[in-house]
Amino acid sequence: MDITGKLHSVGETKTFDSGFQVQEFYLDLTRFNQMTGEKYSNHARFKIFNEKCNPDQYKVGDIIKVGFSINGKSFAKDDGSVGFAQDLVAYKIDFVREGINQPESQEPIEEDHDDLPF
What is the reported pTM? Predict the structure, then answer.
């Protein structure tokens, strides 16, 4: 699967005694309703294992395309019930374009519908 969004933040690389490495980064996937301008905040956490790709090469705010897979597993909770965990595991990051620093309270763009072609 692929998804495109704005790089929000990049975590530190964690290295375990076995040599296994993991790094997390967050992608801002915020959307706006075109009719009302309502903002739908959405941030996704991705994990990278053993330096398969390097989010450090991008700046926070850059627009990137992330190739990822969804890995899920079940586990037994202390109370005997079953819980589930999912990870979004990135295997590829492609640069789309440099980010534009815009204020958080960006107003929706109003479209002019008065110049219809008919």
Answer: 0.72
